[in-house]
Amino acid sequence: MPTVTLSVHESDPVDVIVVGGGPTGCTAAAAAAREGARVLLVESTAMLGGSGTGALVPAWCPFTDKKQVIYRGLAERILRTCKERQPLVPANQFDWVPIDPELLKRVYDDLVAEFGVTVLFQTTLAAVEKKRDSVSSIIVANKRGLTRLRARVFIDCTGDADLCAWAGAEFQKGDAHGDLMPATHCFILSNVDTEAFKTDCDNGRRLMGNHPKTRFYEIIESGRFPLIRDAHACANLIGPGTVGFNAGHIWQVDNTDPDSVSRALAQGRQIAAQFRDAFAEYYPAAFANAFLVTTGSVLGVRETRRITGDYVLTLDDYIDRRSFPDEICRNAYFIDIHHSLKEAGEHTKKRADGLSMPSLHYQPGESHGIPYRCLTPRGLRNVLVAGRSISCDRPVQGSVRVMPVCLAMGDAAGLAAALADDSADADVHAVDVARLRARLVEEGAWLPEPARVAATA
Description:
Blueprint: E1 8-10, E2 14-19, H1 23-34, E3 39-42, H2 74-84, H3 101-114, E4 118-120, E5 124-131, E6 134-142, E7 145-156, H4 162-166, E8 171-173, E9 187-190, H5 194-199, H6 216-222, E10 233-239, E11 242-247, H7 258-282, H8 284-287, E12 291-295, E13 305-307, H9 315-319, E14 327-331, H10 341-352, E15 368-371, E16 383-385, H11 394-400, H12 403-421, H13 433-442
Parallel strand pairs: 1-7, 2-3, 2-7, 3-4, 7-16
Antiparallel strand pairs: 5-6, 6-7, 8-13, 9-11, 9-12, 10-11, 14-15
């Protein structure tokens, strides 16, 4: 057999490496560089933005607690920058703002460039190297081959906690049986009749399963669209005659399993085509001439690993609207767990029969804190984790996984990484939390004193 020689290129060390260029990774890289750190951002696709760009999620989850914007700092800056360039969006709208994915790509590019972040696109994490309790380097793969990248501090923003898991960190995954929330392959339809979408489809709300005039259940019961199996369809007008869809579920997908993801992507494209045909038939005024423009270049994934950190945020914390002395942001999004395949049929039938489904929503002005300790993996001295894989139980992950709170967590993680880099041993667990919180507030974060919010832990 031929001899295979693996040559690993060496790269100059930097202060902070961020792996994953989704919303969390973008704000993490920008925040660390803003503090003067030399930052390298490693992204596996050809763009920054993750869910809002590559995955084509068509709208931001709410930025407010129904009274005020609570995801501030870099998060609010990104939203406002997008809104300024989207004439379709009312100036006073901060919840469920539609996303123009091409615009958002450029907004993220501009953000990291402003602070001097170096970005490596189409570069995949391939291995993690450790010395005792610290990550010393990572190996990445791209057109150059294999390259070793060194830094004093690493931030895992992969969404799947790949860096942390490969470094040996403890984690949990899915529910008690290991089942994961379904994925969704988002898509865009063009040549939509805009006025009919606004009137006949009630701006997309009539396409949802809980609308009293929906025809979704007729679509499912017809049996002619077999890949549309439950009433999940969120639609947003993202441009003239152009509607983005977060619709359909693909079950038994594990984003850490390439075989599983490959099958899901192929199935997702078929689902998108069936949605186009179904909506053209059942909502012809809006969609009779609609054209399927594109599906996401990556899958919309809701959960995989959750790292075990110095603190595990629990459902009780969420219910109690708890505050923490080391909290680095607030969160008000509802508990949003998408159903398993077994549960989907029961859920769809209840909604079709007009029965309400229980969910956990806050009242206006209510929120909970996310402690810094949820970003510090146990057993890893110089690694932070941010985004949907922070240290929390599964119900809470159903809330903290969405983009606005991920932006806020990334902002905090980047600043903390820069502070750790300034210390002798780059220990993220020893970061001065008072200093971290003070800098976050200086940069616009909303961190009210515990007396102004719910009961303090």
